[in-house]
Amino acid sequence: MSLANILWEPALNWDGAATSLETQALTPIENPVELHQSLAVGVSKLQQTELYPPLFRNAFGSRTITEENVLKALAQFERTLISANSKYDKYLRNETELNSQEIAGKVLFSNHPDPTIPVAGADCMHCHNEGNRLFSSTDYTRGAAASFFNNGLDSQPKDAGRFIITGQESDRGKMRAPTLRNIALTAPYMHDGRFKTLEQVLDHYSDHVAKDSPNLDLNLLTATNKRNGTQLSLSATQKKQVIAFLLTLTDSTFIQDKRFSDPFKP
Ligand code: HEC
């Protein structure tokens, strides 16, 4: 998942397993399928370098590196990863215009479909919150429980998602919807990386939502732009428009920020 604007996310990982960046940071370090090393061993390796003890002294007042301070340092760095200068942000600040295709995509993104009215909807904003500019499922007004959804990828979800954390059947198959900021740059998509392109993502939401999936979000269950339709049914043009809008969320200021690049590369 993207780490852009992660400081504002109260629940982390696809299933919300962690609720602070400090506790989250421990998981990938020790997890056997990720870095697979105990933090204690990592700390003793850092302690033996020339580079890190002085940096920890500058930050925390002591050359002795602790597990707690490693997690704090990682978390605090993540809190600086703020993306707020995409074309869409500039548009909101009246610094640039969106073209007609991007505007059409924005309208689709934010509209609930209703076949009885002439304006189509793609329904994305129900779960990718545009209102708070995060474009994730985090919804401060509705609270953490409302931030996990089943978006109908499979009739039988292989990954239990939020269920692992709460043990509630009503949470089986639900995931956090990640931010869509810089989404054009972060393929493949979904928790299992099943989609290689945004076109495939739009095809999923438009034509292939698994309606029998347990706990499928109610909006997705009923959303359609066609009378008596069973799927959202966006036209090829409408899919392109939504993608054009998603491309306005690419923030090259963020992507090219030297402070976020590999410090060991000249
Ligand atoms: C019912 C809630 C819901 C709706 C509506 C919804 N999404 Fe999602 N979206 C999710 C969830 C949940 C995930 C993560 C699912 C997973 O990986 O299992 C996701 C994932 C994504 C991803 C992949 C993100 C990544 O980092 O891999 C993209 C892109 C995306 N959605 C775009 C859209 C677009 C475009 C729309 C509107 C056409 C839309 N979504 C509508 C809930 C929703």
TrEMBL record:
GO molecular function, one term: metal ion binding
UniProt keyword terms in alphabetical order: Heme, Iron, Metal-binding, Oxidoreductase, Peroxidase
The Cytochrome c domain, residue ranges: 100-250
Any one annotated GO CC term: cell envelope
SUPFAM superfamilies: Cytochrome c
Domain of life, per lineage: Bacteria
Primary location: other
Gene3D superfamilies registered for this protein in UniProt: Cytochrome c-like domain
Pfam families per the UniProt record, alphabetical: CCP_MauG
Family matches, as InterPro entries: Cyt_c-like_dom (IPR009056), Cyt_c-like_dom_sf (IPR036909), Cytochrome_c_Peroxidase/MauG (IPR051395), Di-haem_cyt_c_peroxidsae (IPR004852)
Subcellular location: Cell envelope
Protein name as catalogued: Cytochrome-c peroxidase
Organism: Hymenobacter cellulosilyticus
